[in-house]
Structure formats: structure tokens, C-alpha cells
Amino acid sequence: MSDARRWFELPSPFRMKRGGELAGARLAYETWGELDAARGNAIVILTGLSPSAHAASNAEDPSPGWWEDIVGPGKAIDTNRWFVICVNTLGSCKGSTGPADVNPASGEPYRLVFPDLTLEDAANAAYELVRGLGIKRLACLLGNSMGGMTALAWLAQHPGSARTHVSISTAPQAQPFAIAIRSLQREAIRLDPNWNNGRYDDERYPEAGMSIARKLGVITYRSAMEWVGRFARIRLDSDQRDDDPFGFEFQVESYLAGHARRFVRGFDPNSYLYLSRASDWFDLAEHGGGSVDAALARLDVERALVIGVETDILFPLTQQQQIADGLRAGGAEVDFVALDSPQGHDAFLVDTARFGAAIAGFLAAR
Amino acid sequence: MSDARRWFELPSPFRMKRGGELAGARLAYETWGELDAARGNAIVILTGLSPSAHAASNAEDPSPGWWEDIVGPGKAIDTNRWFVICVNTLGSCKGSTGPADVNPASGEPYRLVFPDLTLEDAANAAYELVRGLGIKRLACLLGNSMGGMTALAWLAQHPGSARTHVSISTAPQAQPFAIAIRSLQREAIRLDPNWNNGRYDDERYPEAGMSIARKLGVITYRSAMEWVGRFARIRLDSDQRDDDPFGFEFQVESYLAGHARRFVRGFDPNSYLYLSRASDWFDLAEHGGGSVDAALARLDVERALVIGVETDILFPLTQQQQIADGLRAGGAEVDFVALDSPQGHDAFLVDTARFGAAIAGFLAAR
What we know:
The structure is a homodimer.
Chain A: E1 6-9, E2 14-15, E3 21-22, E4 26-32, E5 42-46, E6 71-72, E7 77-78, E8 83-87, E9 102-103, E10 108-109, H1 119-132, E11 138-144, H2 146-157, E12 162-168, H3 176-191, H4 207-221, H5 224-230, H6 251-264, H7 269-281, H8 292-297, E13 303-309, H9 317-329, E14 333-339, H10 347-350, H11 352-364
């Protein structure tokens, strides 16, 4: 399989917010386009919980990326103009160091001895990467979902390090509904006997717990409105069903099962737990003396684009509005875009026409 | 423990919609107030998935019921005026015959040989009870949540059998978002090794699966808006926490755990599966030649009150509006009340002041 990933060795030890540290850790990332001579045209993309650094196809890896419609030559994030860097989050399992990797101190996988991970750590790791590439100030720091929280953590710790900021379907702090959902996802994994306190392997793998976690994710990433139009009460054909009296009967159930099947073995369960908990812990108010608004006012960006979706139940529009208002109060020129896309939280992955238009317009302005 | 339940023996065999039948089945119910000489003052309450027939305290059982604020002398459903009957759903485990009861054919509990159960069956059983009490026409048929669907199934099968109808936070057919949630709840139970294809006992009980199912229920019964105000990011005291690195940390997690603890051993898991699946199956369109609206137009009630809540994500307001419009098209005089209670689907159990006022006003009109 072709692989466009590059690797960045983090300073060792890499010290973390809650007191732990990592030795010999690295980040996986991919890039598109060329860094200009002034090193002033760099855009960093920070991802949601599960995507890899492969946001789009490139020469080394022509397979479509998770944001293929947005990133590329002539697209909304135009790689003819911008040098684009997408980072696999620290703690993930798509190349960056995470719980599934070998702990050099023991020669064994970290599993649950991986240090407590926060989004501040993920942000600092990505910041080190950018500094390592010789870039002092980003043209734009962009984050989606968990990546949006990570971007806020980045700017709070390194104000002024990005000229502009694009914040998409994210949160300045985790709210109780989102915490409840993520807590239940973690519980489903932890209750799976095969999780075995993090000591699973391919033979004994917490498949059931991961499946429940993923399905609950998909339910909260989309919207009821979209599904009424898409699935209504359409039933599976009899040859798609099994004999289990409580087996799947409706298309929406099979859709969720397909999502779970594609995810379960492709994402490390311990990594999922660490990143999920990091999302719950995130509270920008810690960087503003207890006030989210105070923290937002200090991020020091010139311009910002904040996009939210009315049907998003996990990262509600009110939170996007709060980010926009807070940045504006800090002196940034802010475009706030509320979309009525039916796809809920996932809209940025699906309704790329409208997201792309908003992002393209923002990046075109100087 | 005091017990106000009465028992009604269903016709035996009791034939069911999907072809099965029950021998020697019975319903548990409770009553308040006195049936008048003309037998014209009876109100039936059909419940959500989990409540018992104990809607309110009475002489035989002074413990508070699940709708204590609504049902009683001088309350919104005034038992000085009305003869109120609350029915435990067929298939439940609170007295009415369900999967946990002994199958007279085998002398063993039914478990998964309990026949396929639909809300039409639950409605017909309750209808038989009312006929058995000598009541030809109800003053009012009232249903909440799953009980609201059961009430629609009742009226579709016995049009004209209620003079008025109160429909609360329910659905004329299960929509895919609600199906997805319930399917995942059932899956959590079925994946619990202790479920054991329905052959659990007190020693080996699907506690983990039931806990996940209940927590997911509570998350979807309430609203994100309520929880922002109620829990925000309040953390548990250190003495409320355990050493598990992924253990509960936020109050909202402990709140969900408390709900699960109170529910898990109090409700039969197989009964839960049967009633949950019956809810997914419900589609009033089956009674209207494929059209929900046609079915609603035939229910033949004189007046109806339809109440919905804007923050309800499980039974959205659009579905309440559809019920109101359909009943109106059928010639009923309809009051539609959309409440902005923050408690979501559960508001009818919590915001009893506003629900009570709407119900009282409706019942006072003649």
C-alpha cells in the first residue's frame, strides 16, 4: 500500500500537561503543495478523533483522503497556493505515537501506561512539528470537531502563532451531553470482557464494545432529519437478514452495522479511550482564568471563520456562536456561518459544497 | 409491600397480530376514582416502556406513583371526577403477562418463546380490559411515549371507542433515529454474554448490557440544553471516584450511573427487548392503506389534545404536529401544545406544571 506519511520526531522527552512524558515519540503527517520562500503560506489541518493524516490524495498516495473534495489543486483549500499540513493526532493509531506503540522504557506496548493525554498535548506536538518545519507563523490553523478543540488549545498556548483560524463544528469546552455520549462509548469498550483492561490482541479483541461505541458515534454524528429522508422505515431484503429474532430488520440498522464493521478493527481501542477522554477534559476556560470568553479573546488571530451546523447535536450551534463571539471580542474579524445541512456533526465531511464555498471565500480574502 | 394492582384475565387464547397467541394471560392495572352510573367518566392511561400501572398513590398503595403530580383528587386528571385506569402494558414485567412469566404450555418461563409482540396487541389487551369493566366508550384515552403509540394503535383498531384523546410525546410511526437508538439498546443487551439468548438468572444477569441500554435511554430522554444548566462541567468529589483511569469524573456520568443502577435489576431484559422491538415495528400507516395521515383521519375522536416538546430528540415535535394535523383532518377538534420545556422527551414526567395545566384545561372543556 502506498503511503504518503512523513514523520516528525518530537523533542524527547515530550512533556505533557498532566505530568507524564513520552520518550522518542513522533507524529505522522502529510503535506500538499509547496512552502513558499517566506514560509508564510502554511495551513495546518487538525482532524477529528478518528481520521488519519491522509486528508487528500497526493503523488505518493493516490487513494482518496477523508477531505478529498476540499483539499487539492483548485479546490477550497487550494494546494496550488497553500502548503497544507495534516497532522495525525498525538495518541492516535494512524502513525503518531499512541497507546498501541511500544514503550521504549519497557519494550512492550504502552497500552494503559501511556501517559494521560490532553488536547493541549496534541496541540503542542503539532506546534513542534510546524516549528520543526521552519514555520514561525501559520497562514491558517484549521480544526474540525476534536481537531477544532485542539486548534483552540494550540492558540491558547501559542497566541499569535496563526494569522487566521478556521473553526468547524467544535466546542470551546466539552458539554455534559457530549461527555455523556463519550462516557457511554468508553464504558461499552471497557465493559467488553475482551478489552481486558487494555490487554487485548487480535484474537481476543473488544469487537462488541467498539461496535457499540462506533454506532453510538454515528448516531450522534448525523441527524434524525437526514435519516427520515434517507432511511424512513425501509426494511432490509429477506436475504440481508438473519434468523435471530432480534436481528436487524431496518436499513438504518444495517447502515450502522456497516459503519461499525469498517471501523472496529481499524482503530485501536485504547487510543479511542485516550482521545475520547481528552475531549471530555478539554475546557478552554482553563486558559482564561476560568472564563471561556476571556480565553477566546486572547487567541490573537487577525481573522477567523467559524462554521457550525444547525442539526449538529454533539457540537451544537450555540457553541460555534460562542467561539465566534469570543474571537470577535478579542479583536479578530470573524465570519460566522451557520449551515442548515441535514447531516449533523458530519456535515463537514458530506456537505462539502457548502463547507468548501465558505472556506474558499475565507481563504481568498486577504 | 402494599399493592394496589388489580388483575384482568384476557380471553384465552389471546390472539396476536403476528400470529402468536397467549393462553391464560392477564393484565395488571390500577384505578382511581369511581365509575359513574352511565360508565361515561373513564380515562385510560397507557404508559411508556418502563412504568408500572402505579401512576399515583391510592388507598391500597400510598407510595408515590410515576405521575403523582398529575393524577389524584383535584389534580389535572381529577380523580374526584374521573374514573382513571392505568394499565401495565402486555409484555411488561410489572404484573401483566410477559416473557418472564411462566408459559403454561411448558411450565417454564416464556423467555424468547414469548410470541412476537406488537403495540396493536398491547392496545387490544387494554381494550379487552376496558370492555371487561363494562365500559363501552372512554371519556378519554391518554398515552405517553410508547403508550401514545399504543393509544393510536387502539384507536386505529377500535375507532370511536374514545370520545377524546390525549397524545403526549409520541409517534405515529417509529422514525429511523429512534429505531437506531433502540436497536443499539437491544444490541447492548444481546451482546452481554450474561444475556445468554434470554436464559439469564439472578446470578448470571446481563447487568452491563442493561446498564448501557438504560444510560442511552436517559441520554435520549433528556436534552443537552437541560444538562448544560444542570451539570455543566461539575466534577465528582474525589471520594465519589474510583481508581479506574477511565472511571467516572463528571457529575453527569454519576447521574447516568444512578439511573442505570435503579433500573437494571428492576426491569426484565427480555421484556425490554420485546417492548423495544414492538416500538420499532409500530407504523400507524399500516392502518391507513400505507398512509399515516389516512389512518389518523379515521380514529374517530371528537376532541384531542396533542402535546409535544421542542427539546425532545427521540419523539420530535414534527411528529406531534403530524398527529395533530391528521386528527384535525379527520374532523376532531384538536388542541396542539408545543412546550419549550428543557427536559426533552421526559418533560411529561418532570415539567408537570405545564403538562398538568394543558391536560386540566382540555379535560375541563366539555
